[in-house]
Design brief:
By secondary structure, this protein is mainly alpha-helical. It is built from 3 helices and no strands.
Length: 93
């Protein structure tokens, strides 16, 4: 098998954007005031995330209720989940 003289344009895997000339303008830097606005927004989101509780007591209580329920999950739900995990059936719920 001789690979000398391969034309890269004829090989599908070699047709990539980095081989093509770029006609797009370079990315322009944001003005300082926009950077400050984004920084303030990120700081605000970080503060909100820190204020969230480590756990939600209502969700934990519901989980304990379901854990104590011998009928949860139902056999039908177990079958559906098993089929989804095995790739036999698409999600039905």
């Amino acid at each position: 098998m001789n690979i000398d003289g391969i034309d890269a344009s004829q090989v599908e895997g070699l047709k990539t954007p980095f081989l093509e000339s770029s006609s797009q303008a370079p990315i322009q830097e944001q003005p300082p005031e926009e950077k400050q606005a984004e920084t303030a927004k990120i700081e605000q989101l970080a503060q909100q995330a820190q204020e969230l509780p480590d756990n939600r007591p209502d969700v934990v209580a519901r989980g304990r209720e379901l854990l104590a329920d011998p009928n949860y999950p139902s056999p039908q739900v177990e079958d559906q989940v098993a089929k989804i995990l095995l790739g036999v059936e698409e999600e039905a719920f």
